[in-house]
Amino acid sequence: MADLLTPDELEARLRHVGETRYHHLHPFQLRLQSGACSRGEIEAWALNRYLYQACIPQKDAAILARMEDAQMRRDWRQRIIDHDGEREGEGGIAKWLKLTDDLGLDREAVVSGRLALPATKFAVNAYLSFVKDKSLLEAIASSLTELFSPMVIKTRVSGMLANYDFITPETLAYFTARPVQAKRDSDFALAYVKENAKTPEQQQAAIGALEFKCSMLWAMLDALEHAYLYAQPWPDAFVPADAPAKREAAE
């Protein structure tokens, strides 16, 4: 990218990344929200996705530690509170565990991550490394997937409630507050990127950071789709109760 974009042109490029690369387009996501997933596939999604949810306050703490401006740190630390809560049993991570509990998953197995797919672990570790190793601009830009999450949440929640009788509004409580939080957080991050990406190289780095984050989320769903729909899980990974019946039916 040789030419410097205006801030609005940069925003348009960033939004185009989401329109074409965000995981709302992934086949597994489309199956999840349309009622085509088995209960076991939903269990596997929730268990694996927990590792990503749990890493969010860790990556936000890593970003916060690199901020020199006190007001930026005050603004950013709300993200950590949103996920960790102020005390035990509060916050987004606790609400995600409500989802896995309601699905009948063993909490220790979920929290430990020992049954997650290798690709899930690789993806989460890559994200944490990215925000630690890249520039602060790129680390913040990678969070801009939150520009697109409210639309996915609305479709996911309505689709899951309509199509799965074992899913209740309480089960999906994690998603209740996320659209408002994501809008607040993405407004902050977008303003920062538009103001601080001042050269073509910096602008391209910001776009590349968002592309990386989208690819990380896509790779997690690729792994789920392959393991639980077309092949079988890694030997040490979670195996749903309905998996043997599905394989016999396929044969």
From TrEMBL:
Pfam families: TENA_THI-4 (PF03070)
Functional description taken from the UniProt entry: Ring cyclization and eight-electron oxidation of 3a-(2-amino-2-carboxyethyl)-4,5-dioxo-4,5,6,7,8,9-hexahydroquinoline-7,9-dicarboxylic-acid to PQQ.
The protein's annotated pathway: Cofactor biosynthesis; pyrroloquinoline quinone biosynthesis
Species name: Chelatococcus sambhunathii
InterPro entries the record matches: Haem_Oase-like_multi-hlx (IPR016084), PqqC (IPR011845), PqqC-like (IPR039068), Thiaminase-2/PQQC (IPR004305)
Annotated coiled-coil segments of the chain: none
HAMAP family: PQQ_syn_PqqC
Residue ranges of every copy of the Thiaminase-2/PQQC domain listed in the record: 13-222
Family: Belongs to the PqqC family.
Keyword Ligase: no
This protein's UniProt keywords: Oxidoreductase, PQQ biosynthesis
Enzyme Commission (EC) number: 1.3.3.11
Name of this chain's protein: Pyrroloquinoline-quinone synthase
Reactions accelerated catalytically: 6-(2-amino-2-carboxyethyl)-7,8-dioxo-1,2,3,4,7,8-hexahydroquinoline-2,4-dicarboxylate + 3 O2 = pyrroloquinoline quinone + 2 H2O2 + 2 H2O + H(+)
